[in-house]
Amino acid sequence: MSKDNVLEVRNLQTSFSTDKGEVRAVDGVSFDVPKGKTIGIVGESGSGKSITSLSILRLLAENGKIKGGEIRYKGEDLTKVSEKRMRELRGNEISMIFQEPMTSLNPVYTVGQQISEALISHQGMNKKQAMVRSVELLKLVGIPSPEKRVKAYPFELSGGMRQRVMIAMSLACDPEILIADEPTTALDVTIQAQILELIKDLQERLGMSVIFITHDLGVVAETCDYVAVMYAGQVVEYSDIRTLFKQPKHPYSIGLLNSLPRHDIDQEKLMPIKGNVPSPHEMPTGCRFAPRCPAATDLCRAKMPELMTDDSGNQIRCWIYSDEWPGEKEVNVYGETRIAKG
Ligand SMILES: Nc1ncnc2c1ncn2[C@@H]1O[C@H](COP(=O)(O)OP(=O)(O)OP(=O)(O)O)[C@@H](O)[C@H]1O
Ligand code: NI
User: Fold this and answer.
1) In terms of DSSP bridges, do strands 94-97 and 315-316 run parallel, antiparallel, or are they unpaired?
2) Do residues 128 and 33 both lie within one domain?
3) Ligand 1 pocket check: which of 17, 23, 185 to mutate, most ligand atoms within 8 Å of Cβ?
4) Contact residues of ligand 1, CB 6 A cut-off
5) Where is the ABC transporter domain (predicted)?
């Protein structure tokens, strides 16, 4: 494992057993989380973003199982460690904040009691120390009059303030990695921007790594250093943020970027990529994006491309960039030209 990475996910496969058979929700996810950096995971609804992060924390539903791959965290493979070790890691070293803060906070306890609980059970503090630290944490996440708010119940706070409380809780144990799964979608736009700013600021000040899950590439552009683009349970492109926005490689990434809201176009009129995400019960045999891809060839429809790594460490899962590409040298993708490797 590279010294610069705190986490490396390799060919992760997570399945659910259902009445209709096996759902391979995550089926070939690889990415690195460099120390002190923020990586974004983007993709349409159902592409496997949340299941990827829940797999890392081993918090899958009863019918879910990690079927293959590796999750390397500081030399340990989290797919192999004991349940006891996972409990130590969760909250202590890898913590997570979710989309809807109200469902994750307990309505019958005060904010201070809930943050203290984490500090008492994980850090071995006594009640008084934990309360003092709770106030500090509320201050850290920008909650005004923290001495007062520490005694408030969740319903007494606004959505944005509740999300700040959740962030405070997730920081209680000074985690190495913070996973934020759509942390702002339930909030209104101005509050969203503030929460994003807060996460970025905390990441810089505390030096932790952040995995930021979102379907919004605009948010990724503002927050992330690296990005993994997911499509139908797989990473199709992993790249540093500059390269992805300047020269996206995968046709799906190109399509996503083309459908980003712009000031000169009415958001309603933006035409997203044609076609639909395949059903998890009927995955295409070849490249999963082939049925929607403007550049797809017979090879693409017949055979799944591997995730290939280039010299700069960026990864791409697309036949265009392989020696086997059977099509033209200059490939037109959504009006842009890409040079094939073959
Ligand atoms: N308990 C489960 N049983 C069966 N299938 C499941 C279960 N949980 C998730 N899935 C399936 O796994 C796939 C990936 O879901 P996931 O929640 O990771 O998507 P996502 O990318 O996070 O989407 P969203 O942007 O909507 O949050 C979906 O097809 C979903 O239906
Ligand atoms: Ni999700």
Assistant:
1) unpaired
2) no
3) 23
4) 16, 18, 23, 25, 43, 45-51, 61, 63-64, 215, 280
5) 7-257
Cα(181) to centroid of ligand 2, in Å? 7
Strand partners, 31: 9
ipTM of the complex: 0.99
Residue 263 and residue 142 share a domain: no
Q: What pTM, to 2 d.p., does this model score?
A: 0.92
Query: Do 16 and 135 share a domain, yes or no?
Result: no
Say how many domains are in the chain.
2
Most ligand 1 atoms within 8 A of CB, residue of 16, 60, 65, 219 to mutate: 16
Among protein residues, the one whose CA lies closest to atom 16 of ligand 1: 48
- CATH, residue 264: 3.40.50.300
- How many degrees, rounded to 5, is the angle at CA 39 between CA 38 and CA 40? 125
- Give me Rg for the CA atoms of the chain: 21
Query: Roughly what angle, to the nearest 10 degrees, separates helices 111-123 and 83-92?
Result: 130
Which residue type is seen at 8? E
Instruction: Say whether both 221 and 331 belong to one domain.
Output: yes
- The atom number, within ligand 1, closest to the CA of 26 reads 14
Q: Which residue in the block uniquely carries the two structure tokens 């009445």?
A: 19
Q: Are residues 156 and 211 in the same domain?
A: no
- What is the residue whose two structure tokens read 């797919």? 79
Query: Rounded to the nearest whole angstrom, what is the distance from the C-alpha of residue 33 to the centroid of ligand 1?
Result: 22
Q: From the first residue on, what is the mean pLDDT of each consecutive set of 10 residues in the chain (342 residues)?
A: 91 96 95 96 94 95 97 95 94 84 80 91 90 95 95 92 90 92 85 89 93 91 95 97 95 89 58 83 94 96 95 93 95 92 76
